[in-house]
Amino acid sequence: MPLKHLEWDSELFGRRIARFEGHCFTGADAEATQRLCAERAIDCVYLLLDAADTASIAAAQRCGARFVDIRMTLEAPVSESEDRVSGHHAAGEIRPAAERDVPALRRLAAISHRDTRFYTDSRFDPDRVDLLYQTWIEKSCHGYADAVFVMDGADGTQGYVTCHLDEGPTGRIGLIAVGPDLQGRGGGARLLQTARGWFIRAGCGSWRVATQGANARALRLYQAYGFRTTAVQVWFHLWLEEGAGGRL
Question: Following DSSP, what letter does each residue of 162-214 receive, concatenated?
Fold first, then answer.
């Protein structure tokens, strides 16, 4: 049974959390998940299913899983071609992150990812979700990401992007955020330019990013940079409660 206990999520949220790692979710998987969660005292299971796999989605819904997000994965060749996005007027320097940036990056992370599935699911304490992204950006600066770039504005740190090298090598954007003062002023485009340049120097042939299906602004930006959708998936959270067929 492809059910993996997630130690970091469990410690952060104070609930025992696991992730279903199979490619499809059947009625038999639902029964086995209920049983294993009861045996292991698991509180919540994350399920990521193909949006076209209606049978798996139906099985997840039948056992009480809640839809929380659409995950869009986009990919593009890495090239030095002329930018398709023009009119960048965002002021400020973009540079590699330094240790001194971590407090400001944590503050920005706490307000920058409010459209993600952890905020959508009311079972998660929003303050703990803030902490998730604060910890994520800090760990990225300490080696979880292969590179982190910071954008400075008139009032301090106003953006960041984290870069990862996957096999290939293929570039991957982890986190990207633009502060309120620079939103709509080309800040996101400038961060993508910087990340693309770093991936080119690292020898990547392509780069990818994942975002929320409801994040129209991000999707428009990625599409303007030549990204095309390669996968559409749906996130479900399955909570097991006392008296509801098992303990989650």
Answer: EEEEETTTEEEEEEEEE-GGGTTTTHHHHHHHHHHHHHHHTT-SEEEEEEETT
Tokens of 133: 């992204």
Q: What is the pTM of this model?
A: 0.89
The Cβ of residue 23 has, within 10 Å, a number of other Cβ atoms equal to: 11
pLDDT tens digits for range 160-173 = 999 999 998 999 99
Output the six-digit token pair for 25.
Answer: 């979710």
User: Domain residues of the chain, as ranges?
Assistant: 3-72+234-239, 79-204
Residue 182, both tokens? 């620079």
Q: Tell me the per-residue pLDDT of 203-246, one tens digit each, with 9 for 90 and over.
A: 999 999 999 999 998 999 999 989 999 999 999 999 987 334 33
Count CA within 13 A, CB hemisphere, residue 16.
Answer: 15
| CATH class as words, domain 79-204 | alpha beta
